[in-house]
Amino acid sequence: MDDDYSDDGSVEFSEDLLNDQEYDQLLDTLPVLKQKLAKFDKGSQINELVLKESLYDHYFEVEEALEDLKVSHKLKRTYKFSDYLSSNFNTESPDEKVLNAQKKAFDDFNKLNIKTSKKEDKISKILDQSLKVDIKSELATNKQFKKPHKSFVVIGHVDAGKSTLMGRILLDLNIVDLKTVNKLIKESESIGKGSFALAWVMDQTVEERSRGVTIDIVATNFETETTRFTAIDAPGHKDFVPHLINGLCQADLALLIVDSITGEFESGFQLEGQTKEHTLLAKNLGIKNLCCVINKLDKEDWSQHRYEFIKDQLTDYLINEIGFEQSDLSFIPVSGLSGNNVIKRQDIPEFKWYEGQTLSAYLETIDVPKPSVDEIIKEPFNLVINDIIDNSNSEFTVVGKILSGVIQINDSVSFLPINEIFKVNKINMGGNFVKFSVSGEIVELSFSKKQFKEKTFEDVIIGDIVSNSTDIKPVKSFTCRLSLFNLQKPLLVGTPFVLFRNNFNIPARLTKIIEIDNSKKRKKHLISKQSALVEVEVEGERLLPLTIFETNPHLGKVVIRREGITIGAGTVVKL
Fold first, then answer.
1. GO CC annotation: what is one (predicted)?
2. Are residues 209 and 317 in the same domain?
3. CA-based angle 228:84:207, to the nearest 5?
4. How many CA atoms lie within 13 Å of 462's alpha carbon, on the beta-carbon side?
5. Under a CB-based contact definition with an 8 Å cutoff, are residues 573 and 549 in contact?
6. CB contact at 8 A, 229 and 152
7. Which residues are paired to 492 by β-bridges?
């Protein structure tokens, strides 16, 4: 047993040995502990088994477990903004100088406390309005938006080769050199954190390239001649499925990395493997385009027979079991280690049978549906917080993907569920300060802490929503249409589970089964593959911000997990 899981000779923790009362306590307290840990640097990286063991050791007292973990893992509450910036961005950019000068001028003016006439008030409003950006014009002329932006998440069973493949992409795009890639992949794998190699690569090259943005999982920005990309590397281990959910919620498409080696594919594709759960979550969290990357095919001598076998197995499952459309699936054989068919195709006799795209060609040409400029302007602004940075005593920053709409400096937005209103001070996109940003971009928004009225910075957590929409409602209970997957046991009224909305998770319970599809009987439980109209209640004091699915699919969809397994997904129909 690893040192991380031992505790000086005390009774070894095993979830299977918990009685019903202990299991319910664990299910109730684990999400609460995760929420608290999310406020600490590296708190979200602690293995879930360690969290469970700590709760068990402290008789499910969350605060005691938290204090123990803070000491044992040397957790720090404060995030340093400088950690996220390269030396290239230590000085003000031209845009930042202008914006800071404007802000200082308005701040100095406000301090004068001058009484103005109605006419002067009107002029002041016009001046303020003049700072607003002409979105249509800027999108057409601003070089930062000249290239389309796509975000993709890399998913798959542990050890499928995700990190090696991502390192290969960066190497062959000349973003990093071969020596650095090999060194960092070896170092990261030696301590069991292979999925962190991409982040380490970008930390090494941060002076040469735009920085990556750490958003719970590992996310990195890079560019080709035609496209701006955000690559999101999600851990493959089952203990980190909540991190995977976070990554899926930020992505436009997904790359499913599959190990083609005989026995390895079969292992990852079994029920206890992560291939199936990852694709199940991808589909139910809104991923439309899925590219199955058949990795390590060089170890099978580029066998077309092996490739076709894996392709057939995945196609049947993804279409008939998960619900993907054939037209939304792609299959690309590669070797992440040698680089064949990742960026370029090598002249290998055994591989002449393949006539399809390289992986990079797929990424550049895949059509990712985006709203029109008119639609973007009309839509309300919505962003789910994926990271929080405590810049200083006076300012904080939130990081996330813009789900819809437009955001500009000086725009007023509401933080939900705490119902505090803020004006945007700064917007950072890909390492550059900008005047505005739009749907699909991953951004940092900075705010003054002085704007808090009733709450404090400590009340803002990962998973909260930043919005100017009136359709979002923080609720204690809601009605949803729930579709269940394979269950190990029936889902009873009163059963606790963990509910996910985007990257936010909260303890919840099934409180009422209103109607079961294709069944006239009223039942007190649900079984595998059933769909039903149900009422759900979240637990604890914090409310859950939601929308009705038809109004906003991004914030009206939920996933439920129990005993470490994804058991269902639902769409919100009533608040």
1. cytoplasm
2. yes
3. 65
4. 30
5. yes
6. yes
7. 525
Exposure string over 439-470, b if 16+ CB within 10 A, otherwise e:
bbbbbbbbbeeeebeeeeeeebbbbbbbbbbe
Same-domain check for residues 203 and 64 = no
Q: Which two tokens stand for residue 548?
A: 């009705």
What is the mean pLDDT for each group of 10 consecutive residues in the chain (575 residues)? Answer: 38 68 82 85 81 86 86 66 33 40 42 42 36 77 81 84 81 74 67 52 37 47 87 68 80 93 83 78 91 95 96 95 94 92 93 96 91 89 92 91 94 96 93 90 94 93 94 96 89 93 92 88 83 94 94 92 89 95
**Cα torsion 474, 480, 484, 490: sign:** positive
Instruction: Please give the Cα distance from 340 to 333 (Å, whole number).
Output: 9
Rounded to whole angstroms, how far apart are CA atoms 226 and 504? 34
CATH of the domain at 392: 2.40.30.10
Roughly how many angstroms between the first and final C-alpha of the chain, as a whole number?
Answer: 47
- Ordered DSSP codes for 48-67: HHHHHHHHHHTTT-HHHHHH
Distances (CA, A) of 150 to 136, 187, 254, 360, 511: 20, 29, 11, 12, 40
Query: Could you give the CA distance from residue 218 to residue 127 in angstroms, rounded to a whole number?
Result: 41
Please classify residue 530 by burial: count the beta carbons closer than 10 Å to its beta carbon, then call 0-12 exposed, 13-18 middle and 19+ buried: buried
Query: What is d(CA 111, CA 38) in angstroms, rounded to the nearest whole number?
Result: 37
How many other C-beta atoms can be found within 10 angstroms of the C-beta atom of residue 146? Answer: 10
Q: What are phi and psi of 300, to 5 degrees?
A: -110, 25
Exposure letters 4-35 (e unless 16+ CB within 10 A, then b): eeeeeeeeebeeeebeeeeeebbbbbbbbbbb
Question: What is the number of structural domains in the chain?
Answer: 4
Residues spanned by the domain of 457? 373-467
Give the pairing of strands 289-295 and 253-259: parallel
- Please tell me whether residues 453 and 492 are part of one structural domain: no
Beta-carbon count within 10 A of 561 CB: 21
> Which of residues 426, 452, 467 is at a domain's end?
467
pLDDT of amino acid 436: 93
Structure tokens given for 268: 């990852």
Of 316, 342, 365, the position where a domain reaches its end is 365
Assess if residue 79 is contained within a domain. Answer: no
3-state secondary structure of 427: strand
The answer to whether residues 443 and 302 belong to one domain is: no
* Whether residue 304 sits in one domain with residue 179: yes
Give the pLDDT confidence score for residue 175 in this predicted structure: 76
The answer to whether the CB of 493 falls within 8 A of the CB of 534 is: no
Is the same domain home to 418 and 493?
no
Structure tokens, 549: 């699915």
Amino acid of residue 124: S
